[in-house]
Specification:
By secondary structure, the protein is of the alpha+beta class. It is about 40% helix and about 15% strand.
Length: about 325
């Protein structure tokens, strides 16, 4: 949950998740719809699918017990070098390095590393520095104390989060300021080197809320796409100056009935700036198929929706739709 997400955002999700799925066994048995609903709103949904795949692997390959070997942890679906290092050092007090955004900032400033951290050679150097530091922590002046590796790596992350922050770092409060190369050279705020961001791309979509009685037509996104397996209202990217009536006909193969503009939602996915123009229409001629269903508002509340479309469910509910316990 903490990958790509701040702690304050994660806490309520973590609490709800642990109440619903307190064990690896419970996660392995859970239906995909349930895990997506518990994750709804956190984004990067591949993470939750990998989480369940990891639970399956733990059940099948490790007898339901979380492995403690770095190599075995790294082999679990969805776990990379940083996450494996964090688990093994913090949970099992092993001398495994970590390298997240906070640690990268601390190390580039402390050691005066001027290259782009995302560049292969610079990234390898930072991993080497992180490995040397945690190895020193494990030695603990010759007498290994329990928790040395765990505390060292957590201290690096906290230092970057609370003191060695991106802008206006609190150098006067830093416990290692006398060793900091960037402070000595007067270039603290220039490090780490920032690569140019990719230009954002504008995209425009038309979404349609089709009502038939007290139910609305929704569909499930297929595997292998952004927000895979989540639910949404039927929509399509509009090309050029294409208007909503043409989009509707292309999407459904029929002319719309009583088409009206409802609202516009703007949101961002990676480098894409998306404008979602939303329209309502009567949908009595539309038939459900494999990925489409007619659902009431209560039915939609039980499903996991893509973020922008969840806002539309909230609008239809009219009473502050929230993730259920």
């Amino acid at each position: 949950m903490l990958q790509q997400t701040q702690v304050k955002t994660v806490v309520p999700y973590w609490t709800r998740w642990m109440k619903a799925l307190p064990t690896v066994q419970a996660l392995a048995r859970a239906r995909p719809q349930r895990i997506h609903k518990l994750w709804e709103g956190l984004g990067y949904y591949t993470r939750v699918r990998n989480l369940q795949k990891a639970a399956w692997a733990i059940m099948e390959q490790h007898g339901g017990e979380f492995p403690q070997s770095y190599e075995q942890v790294l082999a679990l679906p969805g776990i990379g070098r940083y996450t494996a290092g964090a688990i093994c050092s913090i949970a099992f007090d092993q001398p495994t390095p970590i390298l997240d955004g906070n640690v990268i900032r601390v190390l580039t400033r402390l050691f005066g590393v001027t290259g782009d951290p995302r560049e292969k050679r610079t990234n390898a150097l930072l991993w080497e520095l992180a490995e040397r530091l945690v190895a020193e922590g494990a030695r603990g002046r010759g007498v290994r104390a329990p928790g040395d590796c765990s505390q060292l790596n957590q201290a690096l992350m906290e230092l970057g989060a609370l003191v060695c922050v991106p802008r206006m770092p609190r150098c006067e409060a830093c416990p290692v300021r006398q060793h900091c190369v960037a402070r000595r050279l007067g270039c603290v705020e220039e490090l780490p080197a920032r690569a140019r961001r990719a230009r954002s791309t504008q995209r425009r979509f038309h979404a349609f809320i089709l009502r038939h009685g007290a139910k609305y037509l929704v569909r499930q996104r297929p595997a292998g796409v952004v927000n895979a397996h989540l639910w949404e209202f039927p929509n399509r990217e509009a090309s050029g100056d294409e208007d909503e009536r043409r989009t509707f006909q292309s999407l459904f193969g029929a002319k719309p009935i009583a088409l009206k503009k409802l609202c516009t939602i703007k949101h961002t996915i990676t480098r894409y700036r998306i404008t979602l123009e939303v329209f309502t229409s009567e949908g009595r001629t539309m038939l459900p198929n494999g990925d489409r269903q007619w659902l009431s508002v209560e039915g939609m509340r039980r499903m996991a929706f893509a973020s922008a479309h969840r806002k539309l469910v909230e609008k239809l509910a009219g009473d502050g739709y929230k993730i259920p316990e």
